[in-house]
C-alpha cells in the first residue's frame, strides 16, 4: 500500500473497501458541532447496505455527556478503523447522520459515503492524541502529555518544564504507564526541537529505530480510540 492516502470512488470498488472493516471492528467517530466543538468517541462498526447506508453502534452515553444533543440528523461524522489482518492500515470515510434508532439496540444510521480513504500508518500521517506519559531527561522524570503522534515522532507537552535546559539531539525516554490495552510502554527518542508555551515546554521528538514495535502498538491504539 502506498504511503499517500488513496481516495476510492463509490462506483465499483467502494463496497469492497468498506468490507475491509469487519462487523464488530472498533472504530472512532469524529464529530464537530455547528459551533465548532469537536468530539471523538469509540464505537463499533456493524455493517452496511451498498449505496444506501452504514450502521455503527451508538457511543456509550456516559462518554458522550452533553455532546449527545448533537448526535442528530445531518451532523457530519468521520469514521476511522484499523483493517484487520493489515497491520498499520486504516480505512476512513466521511458521512452524515441519517437517523438514530433504538431497536434492536441504539444504532446510528449513516449516509453511504461518496469515497473511502485508505491510509498506511507507516507514512507521515499524524494522529491527534491525549496520552499521559512521563519523560525521562538526565535521570529526572517529568509528567507530560503526547498531543500528536506519527510513525516517526511525536509532540510532547511538559507542564512546568521551563526549568529544563533542552537541546536538540538530546536522548529521552518516554514511559506510558497505561493507555487502553497498553501497560508500561517505553519509547526511546531524541529531541528535535523545543518551544516554550504559556504553561510549559512543547517538545518535538523523533523515535529511535529500536522502538519501532512499541510505536506501532501505540499508533494502532491511538487511531481507533478517542483521546
Summarize the structure.
The longest helix is centred in the C-terminal third of the chain and has 13 residues, at about 210-225. About 30% of the residues are buried. Strand 5 (about 75-80) and strand 6 (about 90-100) form a beta hairpin.
How many strands?
Answer: 14
CATH superfamily caption of the largest domain: Electron Transport, Fmn-binding Protein, Chain A
Global outline? elongated
Question: CATH topology of the largest domain, anyone?
Answer: Pnp Oxidase, Chain A
Number of domains: 2
**Secondary-structure content class:** mainly beta
Helix content: under 10%
Low confidence ranges: 6-12
**Total number of helices:** 3
| Widest sheet: strand ordering | 2-3-4-7-6-5
| H/E topology pattern | EHEEEHEEEEEEEEEEH
What does this structure look like?
- With 227 residues, the chain is mainly beta.
- It folds into 2 domains: 9-118, Roll (Pnp Oxidase, Chain A), CATH 2.30.110.10; 125-222, Thrombin, subunit H.
- 10% of the residues lie in helices and 53% in strands.
- It has helices at 14-18, 61-64, 212-224, and strands at 6-9, 26-32, 38-49, 53-57, 76-82, 89-101, 107-111, 115-120, 127-137, 140-149, 153-159, 171-179, 182-197, 200-207.
- A 6-stranded antiparallel β-barrel has the order 2-3-4-7-6-5.
- A hairpin with a 5-residue loop joins β2 and β3 (38-49).
Amino acid at each position: 500500500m502506498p504511503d499517500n492516502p488513496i481516495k476510492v470512488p463509490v462506483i465499483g470498488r467502494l463496497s469492497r473497501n468498506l468490507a475491509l472493516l469487519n462487523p464488530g471492528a472498533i472504530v472512532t467517530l469524529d464529530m464537530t458541532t455547528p459551533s465548532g466543538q469537536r468530539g471523538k468517541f469509540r464505537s463499533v462498526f456493524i455493517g452496511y447496505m451498498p449505496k444506501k447506508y452504514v450502521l455503527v453502534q451508538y457511543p456509550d452515553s456516559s462518554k458522550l455527556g452533553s455532546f449527545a444533543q448533537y448526535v442528530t440528523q445531518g451532523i457530519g461524522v468521520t469514521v476511522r478503523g484499523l483493517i484487520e489482518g493489515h497491520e498499520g492500515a486504516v480505512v476512513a470515510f466521511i458521512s452524515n447522520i441519517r437517523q438514530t434508532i433504538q431497536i434492536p439496540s441504539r444504532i446510528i444510521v449513516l449516509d453511504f459515503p461518496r469515497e473511502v480513504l485508505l491510509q498506511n500508518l507507516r507514512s507521515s500521517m499524524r494522529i491527534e492524541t491525549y496520552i499521559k506519559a512521563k519523560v525521562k531527561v538526565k535521570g529526572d522524570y517529568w509528567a507530560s502529555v503526547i498531543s500528536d503522534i506519527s510513525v516517526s515522532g511525536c509532540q510532547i507537552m511538559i507542564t512546568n518544564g521551563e526549568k529544563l535546559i533542552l537541546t536538540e539531539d538530546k536522548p529521552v525516554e518516554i514511559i506510558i504507564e497505561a493507555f487502553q490495552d497498553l501497560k508500561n510502554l517505553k519509547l526511546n527518542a531524541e529531541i528535535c526541537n523545543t518551544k516554550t508555551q504559556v504553561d510549559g515546554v512543547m517538545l518535538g521528538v523523533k523515535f529511535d529505530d529500536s522502538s519501532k514495535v512499541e510505536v506501532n502498538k501505540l499508533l494502532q491504539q491511538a487511531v481507533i480510540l478517542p483521546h
